[in-house]
Every structure is written in C-alpha cells, then in structure tokens.
Amino acid sequence: MWKMLPQAFRSAGILLIFFSVLCGFIYPVFVTGIGQIFFAHRADGSLITVDGHAVGSKLIGQPFRAPGYFWPRPSATTPFPYNAESSGASNLGPSNPLLREHIEKRIARLMRWNPSSSERIPIDLVTSSASGLDPDISPAAALYQVARIAEVRHLPKQLLVALVRRHIQGRAWGLWGAPRVNVLMLNVALKRILKHRAP
Amino acid sequence: MSANSLIQLAVLIGAVLLLSWPVGLYLARVFMDKTEQPPSGGRIIRALRVIENSIYRMAGVDPLQEMDWVSYAVALLVFNLLGAILLYAILRLQYWLPLNPQHFPAVPSVMSFNTAVSFMTNTNWQSYSGETTLGIFSQMFGLTVQNFLSAATGLCIAIVLIRAFARESQKYLGNFWVDLTRATLYVLLPFSLVVAVFLISQGVIQNFQGTKRVDLLHPVAFTVNHHRIQLTHQVLPMGPVASQEAIKELGNNGGGYFNMNSAHPFENPNPLSNFLEMICMFLFPGAICIAFGEMVGDRRQGWAILTAMTILFVVFASGGLMAEHGSNPGLHGLPVATRASPLQSGGNMEGKETRFGITDSVLFNATATATSTGAINSTSDSYLPLGGLVPLWLMELGEVSYGGIGSGFYGMMLFVLVAVFVAGLMVGRTPEYLGKKIETFDMKMVALGILVTPAIILIGTAVAVLIPHATSVLGNPGPHGFTEILYAFSSVANNNGSAMGGLTVTSIFYQMVTGIVMLMGRFWFALPVMALSGSLVMKKKIPPSLGTLPTHTPLFITLLIGTVLLVGALNFLPALSLGPLIEHFLLIHSH
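The joint structure predicted for all components is written out below.
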C-alpha cells in the first residue's frame, strides 16, 4: 500500500490541476461567453434604465420609504435595509418575542399613513424576506398601499389600482411560485405618470 | 394544503422520476465494466474521448489497471486531501491572487480550514458570507472546482458499491482515476453547462465584474448607529454566479455564491429557475438508482430503491407544506391577513421570498435537505416549529431519501442491508441481497456507517449545549435556540450544509468542531462502505431459490422505509421533543 503512494500523489496532483483549469476556468469563461452573447442583459444583472440612466436591477429591491411611493417588504440586511452588498435575513424564530415586536412596529407605521383603513395588512408587508433584497410584494400588499399613495400624490385611486393590476405577475405556467408585483417597476411607472400629469 | 401545493408536488416528483430513467441509463453506460470503450456515440463523445485519453497519459494512469478496495480508497483519500489543501491555499492567498476586484483580504485560517473541509466533503456548510468575503477567483477556481470534484468523488464511491454487487469472485472494483475523470467529463460538466445557460436565460448573473453601482430611483435617509445617512445609490454584487449555481445544485453541494444562497434573486430569480434548481438536486441521486438496476442486471431493484426514497420524500414534504401554510400563533391578535388568496400567498412569510410564496419555499428547502444539497431559498430558522422540523428530520434520517450525489445511494444501501438482515433473522435464513451472502464483517461495516452519524450529532449537540460560549451565540431564546444547535450538527454530520442562520458559527469553537464533524461524517461513512464493497465483490453470486427474499416487492419497500424511519425516529425523537416539538406546544398555548 505504501509503495503506491508516490504514484497516487503524482496522479492526484496532475488530475487536480487539470480539473481546476477545466472546471474552474475554462467552464465558467465558456458559460460567460454564451451568456454574454445570447442573454447579455440578464447576465449583467437585468438593469432597468430610465432616460438612458440605470436606476437599479429588476431583481434587487430598493428601500423606498417616502409615503408617495410603493413600499417594499421590510429588509433585515445590515447596516441599512436593502444593502445589496450584504444579503441577510432576520433569522428570528416564530416564538421569538422580538419578531412580534418588529411586526407591531411595522404595523404601527403602516397604520399611521392609513388611519381610516379597517383592512387587515397582508402578512408579507410586515415580515422581512429571506434575502433582504426581495424585489416583489404580493398584489394584496400593493393594493393595500393605494389609499396612502392616492392621498399623498393627489391621484385618483382607480388609476393606481389599474397601475397595480397591470404589474401583477401570475404564477409561472399557472403553477409555480406566487402572484407578485415588482416594486421598482411599479414605482418607475408611478413616476412616469406623475411626470406626465405635471404641467 | 392547497390544490396548487399538491399539484406542484406531483409535477415535481413526476418530472424527477421521468428524468431519472434516461439519465440513469446514461450513467450506467458511462461506468459500465467495459473500461476500454465507454459511451460510444456522436462527435461530442468522441472529442471527449480524446481529452480523456490525454488526461490519462499526462497523469501516468493506466485506465485498464483496476484497483482493489484499499488502493481505490487510498487514491480517493489522496486526491481529496490535495483538493482541500489547494482550496485552503487559495483562500489564504486570496489577497495576492488575480480576479479580486473588491480587494478582499485573505480569509482567516480557521475559516479557511472550515471552508476547505466543507467543500471537499460535499457539505458546503458556509461559515463565511460570500459577497463580503470571497473574490471571483476564490469562488470560481476554488469553490466551483471542489463542487465538481467532491460530487465526482461521491459518485465514484456509489459506483464502487454497485460494482461490488455486479461482479463476483474477484477483488477489483474499478480504477479511481478513470471513474473520477468520467464522472466529471461525461456527467457533471455537460449537464452543468446546459443548466448554467438556462439559469442565465432566467436572470442569474454571469460576468466578471466586481460590483455595479446604480443610482436609487428615490434617495432615502436612514439612521445607522445614531448617524443620519443619506443613501443615493445601491451597489449590486456581480460575478460568475450561474456557472457555480448549476453545479451547486447538480452536485448536491449547496454552497451559495451569496450569503442568502438561493433566496438571493441573482441566484434564483423566479419560480421557473426555482423549479429547475429543485430538479437538478434530485437528478443524479435519483438516476443512480436506475444505473444500479441496470448495472446489476435487474432493473426492478433500482426502481424499488427509488420508490422507497420517493415515498419518504413525499410524506415529509407534505407535512412541511401543511405546517407552513398555517399562520404563526405568536402573531395572534395583530391586524394582519395571513390567509392565502389569489392576491397573496399568506402563511408564515417571515424569511420567505414573495416570488416563491409558501409552497415553493417549503418544497425547495425539503428538496435541499432530503438530497444532501443544503441550499436554501427561505430561512429555516424562521419556519414554524413543525415546518422547521421537516428539513431537520430529513437530514437526520441519514440523507437517504434521495440523499447526496452517490452518497444518498450508498447510504440507502446500508439501510437495505439492515432490512435484508432483519428479514433474514425473522425467517432464520442467512440474509442475502442480489445473490450475495451478507455475513458478519459486512454487517459490522454497515453498523459502523449507520451509527456514526447519529452518534456525532447527538454527542456533538450534548457537548455544545454544555459549553457557555456555544450557547451564547444563539440567535433565538428557548427551545428554538436548542434546535439551532441540533440543526447545525445534523447538517454537518450528514454533509448537508443547510443552516439555521441565527446561530453565529464564525467562532473558533464552531469552525473547528463543525470542520472535524464534516470529515467524520464523510469518511467515517465512506470508508466502511468501501470496505464492505471489497468484501462483497469477492463473494460468489448464489442463484435465487424459493427461499430467497425478493427485494423488489412492495413488501420489501415497506420494510426498507420502516428501517429508515425506525433508525431516524428512534435515534432522534428525544432530541426533537426538546427542540421543535416543545416549541410548537409552547407557541400554540402562548396566546
């Protein structure tokens, strides 16, 4: 058994170097080449441009806080929400009192801008996502915010409801995933409406 | 459980079984006995043959020279040792190596040790956070390579065990260098290539930029540590993600490019990519069963094992779906809407992504823990107690309801031998499987393999809860904190890599202990399997007689499932009642 060791180390070393180059260099470079030729926009992060200016990625959420915009889900990234350089979750267990405390605070903030509403708040709007970068909210969560935005922006509610409805993405093949609305796309569209209405 | 959940589960399983068949036959052809002429066929295969032969020439390998189990094991260990050393060196030297656009410093030594072991053993437990620790070179030339090679190693061990049943009256089990080369060249690379391109088409990024700066649509102000900061831009992470993502799922590795793994939109952008990633995790662990049936010349044997694995998965996944669709009793009395409707998925959404909702989150995490992948698209730490019990228990069964690439199959075979042994005892005959007598030495090896993981999980957890430091880094109070430790040990001992993220595992204690446990979980399991193969391959095959226990019938499948559940349930029930079960009862009675 000991006699075979030197040869084993030699073969192992050469194979390791060969496969490192093949799997660690040639393969990713080749995939990048194909990706850049056929799906360059997606391979580079699905960026959204407004007036020729990149305003974000369709896939990465942004921390909207102004009452005149649709808000995203709470984010647990540190040191500030929607820090794309450091994805992260709250990791709070269901029985942790801190979880309830956080959710109560978020409810209070939503209610402050929506005092007349007796509607229950969609759960995704008060719970933090897994990545901390969730680009979507549920259609229910978008519709819940219509009243607030209509008031702040002096826009008719029906217009905003129609806007949300246009942005609903259903399940893939009617089967996979959950219905959702992309917050950044929605706010880009909202901004466009405001621009057109402005004198 | 909603109709949609049921249909999703059914379509997923249907797709897995449908794909296992052709892929399994392909695997069998790649590893068939005829060393001199493996997959004959088209132009691509012929080109690969040329590459394959030149590798052997370079490495001084004679592909026709076969090895007994000891030589095979030595070659395998040497190769894995060198792989871990290379990865360790890359992580330590990161700062001076090329392709590090963010100028990340060297990875600390203990963390490098943990990570090198983790990726070499196919665990892919991550004590680091990808986007804040590793540059492109470390990810690509370090981690991606070990993703391939640890998966190929697992496949080799499974093939050795299959050959032990397929051959008779000899000591040779194949050539490790040949099996390793073929596993990588004919199996893992081509499949990864196709999957990676599909993932890019769905939005997974693939480039060589470090980061990209974009201006926020609307600037925003935050208070961080009592300082008011004005955010006007966002820095997006970039890198060759799709190429790593593909092998991460296909090789049952599970180590994400980013901290939040497959929950990160750049790793898993939409429900379709999510579906594909689940299929990839199941693909080879399912296909190897079919390859087994093909190589031992009795396809029914392969289907029987695949059926047992599938039933186990369906039962556990259904349980998880039922639990997570409910709302968190801890939120009782708050004005929130948690019921599912066409406008929202509802349920327990803490730590889950909107695009996946409840069903796709639970299915993904069940898939990743049933196969030994350990990827996550939602945080198990924030699952309801019974919902979190599912991934935990799936790991503790020993990673056999599909399990890891190769390792799931050879893990399940140990349970098959126990089932055969128990059945033999009941009727008073010498147990045999596929015509091979199962004798004392074989059963010793089986017991060694099967008992080592529960032992390290339970002892490890018991030790950790007694150490003040180990419990001071818990993310949650009460029984949930205990579950976090139990989850960590269950994950590393079974080479899964899934984690409850609340537990901080960057301390020297956890890095060293989990590193050692990963090594034990991999090799203390694999070496008995190889010794067992060495013993089995020498035995003659006895032709089946009237008294032979048929091992492809529903009766045997039931016996096999019973064996798996008995070991998993009996070993862990006390520990589980101290964690998730107690938390469940506390939670429903708190309000």
